[in-house]
């Protein structure tokens, strides 16, 4: 099992929590694998102050692990709701929903709303929508290997594209 994948037991617990619980668990898992966690603020590769699991819109101070977990959960819950509102029907495909929310969390909702990923999903081209996640590999006009890996994954960690494709309708 790669980091970022949910175990069968985690899937069962998340699914029992109701609609969106699996998406939230998967989105937090995949985002956490790639964002990491810092209790102290730091500047990301393009200079944006960041804390916890990639949060940029809270006071930049030192947080406890519990505070960061709550911040990350609130942020991802909000992102899932925003993606659902912008992408009607995505909630029927919870792992795609999670991958789209992770992408939107990383690139911002404004960028997600105009993305090829979203557009292809709305056209019913689900696999192509997953593949389009790969185009989001730039930050500050430069290709970042960390973003490439976040999208595609590596031998040990699940990427957003792989998560997205696990959620494809049969």
From TrEMBL:
Keyword match Glycosyltransferase: no
Documented EC number(s): 3.2.1.17
Pfam name, any one: Phage_lysozyme
GO biological process, one term: defense response to bacterium
Reactions it catalyzes: Hydrolysis of (1->4)-beta-linkages between N-acetylmuramic acid and N-acetyl-D-glucosamine residues in a peptidoglycan and between N-acetyl-D-glucosamine residues in chitodextrins
Entry-linked Gene3D superfamilies: 1.10.530.40
GO molecular function: lysozyme activity
SUPFAM superfamilies: Lysozyme-like
Keyword Transport annotated: no
Keywords from the named record: Antimicrobial, Bacteriolytic enzyme, Glycosidase, Hydrolase
InterPro entries xref list: Bacteriophage_GH24, Endolysin_T4_type, Glyco_hydro_24, Lysozyme-like_dom_sf, Lysozyme_dom_sf
Protein family membership: Belongs to the glycosyl hydrolase 24 family.
Record protein name field: Lysozyme
Originating organism: Sphingomonas koreensis
Classification lineage: Bacteria, Pseudomonadati, Pseudomonadota, Alphaproteobacteria, Sphingomonadales
């Amino acid at each position: 099992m790669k980091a970022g994948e949910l175990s069968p037991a985690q899937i069962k617990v998340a699914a029992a929590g109701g609609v969106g619980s699996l998406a939230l668990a998967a989105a937090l898992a995949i985002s956490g694998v790639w964002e990491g966690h810092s209790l102290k603020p730091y500047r990301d590769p393009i200079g944006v102050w960041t804390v916890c699991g990639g949060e940029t819109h809270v006071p930049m101070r030192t947080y406890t692990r519990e505070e960061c977990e709550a911040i990350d959960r609130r942020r991802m819950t909000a992102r899932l709701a925003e993606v659902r509102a912008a992408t009607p029907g995505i909630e029927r495909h919870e792992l795609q929903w999670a991958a789209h929310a992770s992408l939107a969390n990383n690139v911002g909702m404004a960028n997600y709303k105009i993305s090829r990923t979203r557009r292809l999903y709305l056209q019913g081209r689900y696999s192509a929508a997953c593949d389009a996640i790969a185009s989001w590999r730039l930050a500050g006009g430069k290709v970042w290997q960390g973003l490439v890996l976040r999208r595609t994954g590596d031998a040990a960690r699940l990427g957003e594209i792989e998560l997205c494709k696990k959620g494809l309708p049969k």
